[in-house]
Amino acid sequence: MTLRGAIIGVGNVALHGHVPGWLSRGDVEIVAATDVEPARQRDAAAKLPQARWYESSEKLLAAETLDFVDICTPPATHASLITRALERGLHVLCEKPLVVSPTELASVSRLAAVTNRALYTVHNWHHAPIIQRTSALLRDGIVGRVQRVVWQTLRTEPSAIARGEETNWRVDPALAGGGILTDHGWHVFYVLGRFIGQWPTAVSCSLERRGKTPLRVEDTATVRMTFRDATAEMLLTWASTMRKNWAEVTGTDGTLRLEDDTIVARHGGREERWSCPPSLSAGSTHPDWFHAVAVRFLAAVTGHAPAAGNLGEASLCVTLESLARESSRRGEATLPLPAPWSTGVAWAPA
After folding, report:
1. pLDDT for the residue 166
2. Strand, helix or coil at 187?
3. Average pLDDT of the segment spanning 215-225
4. Segment 103-136, tens digit of pLDDT
5. Of the candidates 60, 290, 312, 76, the residue with the CA atom closest to the CA atom of residue 199
6. Are 71 and 202 in the same domain?
């Protein structure tokens, strides 16, 4: 059976990350596309010549017979688009962040349950080679029980946007919902949740504007998380002089260092290395990671796998981001996290 899908939002991520993945599959046909920028029609036609173009998502959803939609629009629009798609009985794949508040999460997750439709977020960093290898090493107990994680995401500027746009929506709070904490923090939250395997108990955060060019959103976030048996510290910035990802995982029996595309393990008095290209900082659309996301989403659509685990990760991310922002407003106050079941979405360690 071929599933019929449509793409809402034809920007860089859709064109260079999602579309190549969909075109590589024989069980999916992208039959329609839309974007608020009319100029994107030419880009869509070049990549998806058979797909019909619509002036708006409303017209697309009203006219097409679909199985799913793939939402690649700015974050502040996600909740309303997800709601309209679920109300039409469609499955939904959505770029991160799934939504921008716990209230929106509660609303869309309830609707997905009522309509019995899959609601899935693009957590593509799980499928980066270095993250996959690190997760496997931690499951195998190479450094024992994880006690501390330090993570840095360094960028010189926000991610690029599609050609033809005058301003970058990532620095518009009305569209993005926030700055680097929204754009990169979401990824780190779900990755660290899997590394540590626990729901955090508390979070504190400082949001800053360090860059020479003033932005209306934060360009730097320093986040500290407490878990039952571990701690985590994150530095995320668009104001660095270099583009790099770096992390260190300390356990009871050793350490793992992630240096862009290389893992260095020190344990039992010896050192081991694994090369895991491409690096996390190479590009921003990651088409090579999207394939695994599509496989899992389609398994949820066809009933071969549940979507609950992914939605549980989204609940972790939106809870952390919301409380981190509140912590910054309160002068870096340490705020407790509610129990995972209080979000209304099941969460369990991976």
Report:
1. 56
2. helix
3. 97
4. 999 999 999 999 999 999 999 999 999 999 999 9
5. 312
6. no
- Which residues form the domain of 46? 3-124
Looking at the structure, tell me whether residues 144 and 116 fall in a common domain: no
Please choose, from the candidates 200, 194, 236, 238, the residue with its C-alpha nearest in 3D space to the C-alpha of residue 339: 200
Question: Residue 137 CA to chain centroid, in angstroms?
Answer: 22
pTM over 0.90: yes
Residue 119: CATH number of its domain: 3.40.50.720
Instruction: Report whether pLDDT(44) > 90.
Output: yes
- Tell me the C-alpha to C-alpha distance, in Å, between residue 316 and each of 174, 235, 245, 323: 23, 19, 22, 11
Please report the pLDDT score of residue 165 as a whole number.
54
Question: For residues 66 and 31, what is the distance between their CA atoms, to the nearest angstrom?
Answer: 8
CA distance 224 to 247: 14
Give the Cα separation of 129 and 286 in Å (integer).
Answer: 11
Q: Do the Cβ atoms of 229 and 145 come closer than 8 Å?
A: yes
List of residues 6+ apart from 317 with CB closer than 8 A: 96, 97, 98, 185, 186, 189, 190
* Spatial distance between the Cα atoms of 66 and 46, rounded to a whole number of angstroms: 22
pLDDT at residue 299 in the model: 96
Q: Among 260, 116, 98, 119, which residue's Cα sits nearest to residue 177?
A: 98
Q: Answer with the one of 90, 124, 158 that is the final residue of a domain.
A: 124
Q: How many structural domains are present in the chain? A: 2
Please write the tens of the pLDDT for every residue from 148-203.
Answer: 999 999 999 998 665 555 578 999 999 999 999 999 999 999 999 999 999 999 99
DSSP string, 257-319: EEETTEEEEEETTEEEEEE-PSPTTS-SS-HHHHHHHHHHHHHHHTTSS-SHHHHHHHHHHHH
> Mean pLDDT over all residues of the chain?
94
In angstroms, the Cα distances linking 239 to 153, 168, 205, 214 are: 11, 16, 17, 11
* Cα–Cα distance measured from residue 133 to residue 33, given in angstroms and rounded to the nearest whole number: 36
Q: For residues 273 and 289, give the distance between their C-alpha atoms in angstroms, rounded to a whole number.
A: 22
The predicted pLDDT at position 187 comes to: 97
